[in-house]
User: Fold these one by one.
Assistant:
Number 1:
Amino acid sequence: MEANGRAPASDPAERAALDEVLGPPPTAWLGGARREVDLHVASADARPGRDRLLPALLALQRTAGTLTPGAVHDLARRLDLPPSEVYGVASFYALLTQSSPAAATLHVCDDIACSLAGAAEVAAQAREAIGPEGEVGRGGLRWRTSPCLGQCDRAPAAFLQRTGEEDQVLAPVSLPWSAWAAPRPPAPTPPPPQVGGERRLLARVEVVDPEDLDAYRAHGGYEALRRALDLGPEGVVRELAAARLSGRGGAAFPTAAKWEAVARQPSRPHYVVANADESEPGTFKDRVLLEGDPFALVEALTIAGLATGAERGYVFVRAEYPLARARIAHAVEVARRRGYLGRGILGRRFDFDVEVRSGAGAYVCGEETALFQAIEGRRGEPRNKPPYPTAKGLFGKPTAVNNVETLANVPLILRLGGAAYAADADADATGTRLFAVSGAVARPGVYEVRARVTLGDLIGLAGGAPRGVRAVLLGGAAGAFVGPDALDMPLSPAAARARAATLGSGAVVVFPRGADLTAAVGRIARFFRDESCGQCVPCRIGTVRQEELVRRLAEGSPLGTAAEERALFDDLARAMRDASICGLGQSAPNAVESALRLGLIAGEGEGE
Amino acid sequence: MTASVTATVDGRPVTVPAGTTILEACRRLGVEVPTLCFLETLEPVNVCRLCVLEVEGSRALVPACSRPLEEGMEVRTDTPRVRHSRRMVLELLASAVDLGAAGPEVARWLAEYGARPERYGPPAPPAPAGARDGRQAGHHPGAPTGTRETLAQPVKVDNALYVRDYEKCILCYKCVEACGEQAQATFAIAVAGRGFDARIATEFDVPLTESACVFCGNCIGVCPTGALMVRREYEMRREGTWAPERQSATATICPYCGVGCTLVLHVQDNRIVKVTSPLDADVTRGHLCIKGRFGVTFVEDAAPTSDRGGA
């Protein structure tokens, strides 16, 4: 679609990267060599789907360290898309760049948990070693600050994108600069995650080799799928309903109802999607499941496929989790080889397969419809609901999308039986929940508890808070701060609601006495401003105004009186909640509002 | 599915064919629902959120432009919640975007809903040319503390026919739809960037003359805020000679090809200052090509040199 035939040229390495993702171009129309037949026919059938766009962009980024105009034009031609559209998608994602290439880009997490662990020092070192943030500096390197990388238990963390190499997580960042800036940096083995509590969902994590299917089977693996095949789709949904399983991604929607709604849709095909785009600041529980028990997710997704009548499932993993992605991809490959995926699974008339997809740096893609957009090769702009995904989801087809932890419960329920799973229920919650505890605790990690366990006991499981508790952020940036008076609060959705908080994603970030809460609130305000997709006015401009307001309060320079600023905030919060398209804008004022209520912003005049 | 649905709007019953949007139902009842990103000839994108209203049982407010009316739905268009969100949408837009050329309706709504954009502080200094293009997603540089960030930036003038003044852009997506899928199928522009840095752009922000643009001007035809403007209008406004009260509108048929597009010639001081086509014209639905929109000034005695290659 290049005007006047003046498309810039790509280089051979970029073309090779495209061939690897897309296969060789089938016709001259799609960028191949011209053959006699191309002068007479244009075959649209040979065209690869637009859903190859994000994988291709990620491959180009890795190859050249940036997306060059030549490569973007090539890719556009290969997918029969306008270059403007490809550029529009590429410029949406934080891990794709269109500026001058760097040999490596270090993304230094400066989010809430890492800040408590000295992220500012890491950033200062990076500045000294490389130069100003965002620019290609010494050694052809670049560094940038990053939103939460989901490594809060190993803070401070960084994520390294190296041209021509696999991405790498540095957590904790402990190497001297000269080490990682070398042409071949050592691949540090991250410390194993701390896990504790009841350990039903976590039973195999750090116990069973995550790359060994036989070990998985020896620990109860694939018993649930056999049972599911015996029960049939309706039987599986009945068990989930009896278990009263509700979604663990934040919205707590009943899983049985979701799956049944998809199963009933006459439109075909159906899809199932595992949402492994865990990007809520302070949250890393899904990472521990993905890295530590990947076969369980594959098995659960297979059961979801059976129950909803889907033949294809997707796992969408955030790009910042390279180990999780590799483990899941490995598990899928092994399961396929051993007949647990593919045609005629376990000798039954049931076909199902799984594709692993990677994000490219966008918190909003954890929103289910934005996640579909990303898989489809579009900007991660959430869709208006209704229609809900159960009716019109991925590729416009009925789709069941579930959080990783929710899916992890499914094999357990089928092995125990739904009624037995629900037997030891607390008031409004069955089963256990995973909490990612980080910040000022002795043993940051993932802890599995029931709803009757209190916040204080959970912190106790994590070794307690030796420096005391000034505040706790529950549910991540989209959640709320609570004070030390909430330590006796049971970890149930109802108890959280009663304190105007939420369990949300299960993030628990503990701030010690004397911690700088003003900085944390400011970081959350910046987070929403930077992660807003920009589609709707209340969120696109509202999050900017919220950040400006928080900064004015933090610097002790309010516009007018404190009461006027408070009124301005309340006006913003109401409109963002009421009129934003998706949950990002709707929850963007939550944490700031709770901080104002608790007087946590220092310059505001009510704080310490 | 039933052929028609019955619901209430502000307590008044309304029966419409199934699939009718809430907005359409409101308009049938004569209830005003303000809209910015909506246009009759394009599919609703429901992004400006100005048309939101209350639907009984719905937690958040609902966009009237895209949501079909359902059987038994109770719609309320003038509650405090609705008025608050509309006021804030207008106020937030006015705090960041130059709405000065958005027309009298927008000015009336700003007053009616009581938008006070100055509450967010004095505007931050404008961005230098090109600074807003190519910002890295997720790394937005904020405005100096105490100021409010705006879209203020120099106008993009890169061709002889029209200009792009993106400090007037509310990101309604209409130009993208009109350029691409829903009218022209040229796809010269798309939405690029993210968050507050989201913007309308060609690939790598190249000038329109190096893009796929065919200069049909259909993007200008759908732009609600004057961000996209024919060069002659832009220059007359700059010189202070643009005077709508001295303009006449004459409907005629395009003289070029056999399609027979309806043209409306806007004439000021015996000079064609702009050419449009009505949204409800059967043939055009408001869309034209480069010849109809820009090529009829030959009827004037002497075309000004400014229309010949941007001199």
Note: Chain B has four domains: 4-78, 83-120, 168-242, 245-311.
Number 2:
Amino acid sequence: MKTQGKVLKYGDNVDTDVIIPARYLNTSDKKELASHCMEDIDKEFVHKVQAGDIMVAGYNFGCGSSREHAPIALKESGISLVIARSFARIFYRNSINIGLAILECSEAVDGISEGDSVEADFDSGVIYNKTTGKSFQAQPFPEFIQKLLKAGGLVAAIQSGEIK
Amino acid sequence: MSMTMTQKILAKHAGLEKVEAGQLILVDLDRVLGNDITSPVAIKEFEKIGATEVYDKDKVTMVMDHFAPNKDIKAAVQCKTCRDFCDKYEITHFYDVGQMGIEHALLPEKGLVLPGDVVIGADSHTCTYGALGAFSTGVGSTDMACGMATGKAWFKVPSAIKFVLKGKLNKYVSGKDVILHIIGKIGVDGALYKSMEFTGEGVSSLTIYDRLTISNMAIEAGAKNGIFEVDEQTIAYVKERSDREFTVFNADMDAPYDEIYEIDLSKIKSTVAFPHLPENTKTFDEIGDIPIDQVVIGSCTNGHYKDLAEAAEILKGRKVAKRVRAIVIPATQDIYLKAIENGLVKTFIQAGCIVSTPTCGPCLGGYMGILAAGERAVATTNRNFVGRMGHVDSEVYLASPAVAAASAVMGKIADPAKL
């Protein structure tokens, strides 16, 4: 699976409270959640994000609350992939479970700037910065997680009998 | 190969003799928890799976605590979704207004978590129950849904950091100061993907409530779980609340740890985490005059009776400073009742505090104490992220109940020992 898009870049410790503030958690409506995505860290995010865009960030992305509303809001906003130096563990598993693509790669974070045009292949973990012409290699997922992703997330994996 | 406490519990629940760090396993769950915010999403996913029943009616647990009593119509709809689901699937442990408390105070109190259990909860502070020697960890709503349907969850076996505790805490210093001190030392991702295992002779000098506070904030260091060695206090605490059998797991003497820290409890001082990360810790020798607008004493971190008693001891015969709003939130109905019976509520009200029914409320900026731009709160809660308690330009300072109470009296961040 491949994606390509324009990069929106943020710093370290982007927490789930800024991805989707708790005051909007009185709903689980995807579109409504997406309409407030990143609001407390970047009010312009919802206006500038376009389908397919790639979010790039530093260490510990998605730290804090376990709210699955956070990866849901990002995915519904149009974000096709998050590349970070590291992910907080609950956000990491939530993303895999709901099918939001994520890649861990510090070199790519160093070599990608806001607004760059980037291409990525989830299967191989290869990230290509079209703006600068540089390539980066992210760690591929372990086999079990690749199986989950191929099935389309955890619910689909259970439905198809991958997990009993 | 030898194993940590956490690895032994996971191996047992995966039906394996041995596991090692990095291994992906499927484990059997002793409890699956959700609240009024995360459960509605899980219920949607549960229905997608097409399950016709939950794996165990006694093990699925839902607690209406975040925006309950319903803060608005949308919150009311979310609680109703949970209520209807629990009625339909005859869930034994559904806690609604009247019985509910803040989930991570309520489950230990009701004897629903025992040593050696594996618990997942669609709430990041599910790691609290590590205080009782259980493996418990926060997950998302999809994991909760699949847990409810299958009774299983997938995990990557974590490596661990060991904290060897020695000595005893000084007066006005509590579990909150210990965990803030540790997070200040290792950082908000210092234990990312790992277990924090607490051991050593110092463990027995900590009350169960101090341990619950410490395990509760393991997630604030990025940890998968924060688990304490089981001692006589743990056994007495759980036996008072449950007659279910349990197994105590101890780490092997030569268990592998990524790092080992020695923590001398007698050297820990009152600690405050400044905005906007729990790792921004300072002790009073580094804190100047910082005026405040609000104090919150409560939450899953510090809403226990012990916490309220420590705050009341300071507030007794004193008054909350002018222009400071002090909000006290007992974590459960039992704690609330005991606080009334023992005169704590009277002390709080006479001092000028308000006392609320149990709720997570202001901790996550839900309701019951939202901050305006430019306002500052000292809170016994667990997160001080941007906008966590209200406006993006408000500030939260995390502290112990004793520091919060002293700050309420002084109208600025204050050291209880200097009152």
Note: The CA atoms of residues 151 and 157 of chain A lie 5 Å apart.
